[in-house]
Structure formats: C-alpha cells, structure tokens
Amino acid sequence: MKLSKKTKVMILGCGGMLGEAVYNRFNNVCRVLATDIDLNEPWLSYLDVRQWSQLQKTSLKFKPNLLINLAALTSLEYCENNPDDAYLTNGFGQENVCLLAKKINIPVVFISTAGIFDGQKEFYNDFDTPNPLSIYGKSKHYGEFITRQMCDKFFVFRAGWMMGGGVKKDKKFINKIFRQIKNGNKKLYVVNDKLGTPTYTVDFANSMFKLIESDFFGLYNMVCPGSASRYEVAVEFIKCLGLEKKIKIEIVDSDFFKKEYFAPRPHFEKLVNLKLITMNMMFMRDWKDCLAEYSKVFLKEL
Prior knowledge:
Layout: E1 8-12, H1 19-27, E2 31-36, E3 44-46, H2 52-62, E4 66-69, H3 76-81, H4 83-104, E5 108-113, E6 123-124, H5 135-150, E7 154-159, E8 161-163, H6 166-169, H7 173-182, E9 187-191, E10 195-196, E11 198-200, H8 201-214, E12 218-221, E13 228-229, H9 230-240, E14 248-252, E15 268-271, H10 274-278, H11 287-299
Parallel strand pairs: 1-2, 1-4, 2-3, 4-5, 5-7, 6-15, 7-12, 8-11, 9-14, 10-15
Antiparallel strand pairs: 10-13
Helix pairs in contact: 1-8, 4-5, 9-11
C-alpha cells in the first residue's frame, strides 16, 4: 500500500522502546493515531488491546487503513511469574487486533522475537520451526500463529536483541549497562554464553515502513546484520562511549545472574534475514554502525 497523508495508521502499544521510532517514521508521512496503556508521551491516547470494546470503539471513530501492534510484555521474568498476563497481552491482544483487521479488511502488523526459538541451532532463518523455551517466547509465538491463521494481509516482523528508546524507555541490555555506569560502577559483569543479533529500533521502523509499502505480505526475520555475544556488545558500547580505559568488563556465565534472570533463555538467538536478503530488501544497517549512532543518546547523559 502506498503510504501518504491520506493513510490512517493506528499504532497500538506505542509507548514502549520501539514506539517512538515507529511513530516518528510513520507520523512524518501518514495520519497516525498512537495508543498505549501508559500515556508517557503527549501524542499517546489510552487503549488496551486486551479490551475488544475499546479497540472496536476507537477504530470505528478513527477508521484506520493499517493496524500496527507494538503492545507487548517483554520482561521474560515478569512473563514467567505472570503467565496469564503474558498470554493475554502478547497473544490474546493480537487475536483482538487480528479480528478487527479481518472485520474491516485492512493489513495488520505484529512484532515477534528471536525468543521463539530454542537455541539448539546457531542461526535461524525465516523458515525454521519455532520451539520457545519461555512463557514470553510461547506467548509471542501464539501471536505469530494467530496472525497467520486469521489474516490474509499481514506482516510478522521478528526482532532480535532490541536497542533503542533512549535512557527513558530502553528496558533492555544497553540501558542496563549504561545505568551501571551512571551509578559509578567501574567493573561490569557480562555474560559471553548468550549470542544473538542486535536490532536497532530506528532501522527496524524504517524497514517496516518500506516492507509495508511493498505489499509483500508475510513473515520476516528483520535484524541488523552481524551477530555477537552480550560481552561483545558491551565492549563495543563502552568503546562508543570512549570509556575503555575507565570501565573494566569481566566475563561471567549465565549462572552468575541466575537469581535475577531466572527465565529460560536460548544459548543462540541469532536470526538471519534470509527472505529480505533474497528479495533485495535489506534495509537494516550493521549492528555496530547502529550502536555507534544510538550511543550518541547516552553520551549526552554522561
């Protein structure tokens, strides 16, 4: 579909770390209604994807041409401790969105994760069979499943280790490292037995935009080229901040954090964008280039 000022895009769960990048990319071109249950931006309206009546009422008023669902519970530990909430948000919420998309015959976008795989292989392409280990992975896998079952016009985009959103909204690895630095830690303990593919929110949103315009509906791995261990990402981030001589990084294994991060995580979460590469539609930059760009946000906070 050609995206323009006439296109009405309803973005659900737009208050999280991916939301701002998606909002900025689409709002510059389309008419956007951004919603969330956490109204942390002036451009957000309240909507809970788990509540069909809210979803239907808002859509009847706005009359969207495209639904993008970013609403998700992404903390693996929270999902393990609150499985019902995880399934209702990550699975049933998407089921509601798909039902709406089907009723009004418009395309729908769902964001999935490398966490749907079990880590028994080093790399996973778009066609590999999911086998999630965690409640988070299982709930996102259900979101994938129901989207493919219910919708004819859909995009499922699988992200890797997400980085983006800045100091305020980044709930993942980069900001966790940064917070330790801001707290005065001179030694960081980082695992090297978890490997994956970093995914920059800005590139992810841009790639999403271009894929939607292509009308090549389907499921896609969509991560930054290159892979790394958590340790390698930390080393690169410290280098981007210019703190190599001030911060020491000590390698540990995952057992070091087993009390804090008890949810099962696959050893390998490396995705390969096989379909995008084959289609000559790879719009994601190398993760190191993306991290260098993203690090500028944190340099302002030092």
